[in-house]
Amino acid sequence: MKQRATKDEDRDVRITAFKELARSWRNDPETLNILKQRATKDRETYARVYAVKELANGWHKNPEILQILKHISTEDEEGYVRSIAVHELASRWHADPEILEFVKRIVIIDEEKYVRKNAVQEIALWWHDCPETPSIMKQLIKTSKMGDVRKAAIQELARGWHDDPETLDIIKNSTATDKVMDVRSAAIQELTTGWNADTEVLEFVKHRAMTDKSRVVRQKAVRELKKLWGLEIEESIEGNT
Asked: Name one GO molecular function term (predicted).
């Protein structure tokens, strides 16, 4: 089994072997070493992913595993592996105050947009009750240079902190001023989902349907107006696509 976990040429065979080792021979000292090796050295992305999961699941009380996963979160060459490691850190070590700071750093430094976006979602999920978290979302909306990060923060703020007095104004501001049309469209979606009983929001969305510089965003606003309020409105035909 150990030979298959480390030497087999087939990725799926290696994965099956080391998963079986983790389940049936967890107390064998070599099992942990094999998983650590597969998590950091295996040439296949999915093998490293499954090894990371097994380490987090079976050895999360081992301080060394925390350090290994932090290393993988920043150093693995594949964004998917880094993202899985961040998820395991957030889900299993969120009571550690240093982990929030670590995941916040991932949002800023990772080179892949989906890793950063997923890190935003992990913060909103696992630290929802932390007083600092809504401020983190607001700051990302205002300052992140990555559209996917701003979009994720808008979605999380709207859904997780709907009743915060600042949330509505922040979402409206993003709808009107964000440079990326996909972010503006997402902000319209959150407005019409979370505040569809607000007449001021209705008027605001009508205005965006007529004036946004992107046809895609105008069309999004028109569809939401028709779906939620039964309104037919002719969008402006001017502006960029």
From this structure: oxidoreductase activity
d(CA 91, CA 88): 5
Under the banding of pLDDT at 50, 70 and 90, the label for residue 3 is: confident
Using alpha carbons only, give the angle 120, 75, 64 rounded to the nearest 5 degrees.
90
Give the Cβ contact number of residue 197 at 10 Å.
8
pTM of the model: 0.91
Q: Report CA dihedral (107, 111, 115, 116) to the nearest 10 degrees.
A: 20
CB-based contact 122:103 (threshold 8 Å): yes
Yes or no: say if 51 and 38 are a contact pair by the CB < 8 Å rule.
yes
User: What distance in Å separates the CA atoms of residue 215 and residue 116, rounded to the nearest whole number?
Assistant: 28
Amino acid 198: pLDDT: 95
Candidates 80, 88, 87, 146; CA nearest to 113 is: 146
Q: From the DSSP assignment, how many helices (H) and strands (E) are in the chain? A: 14, 0
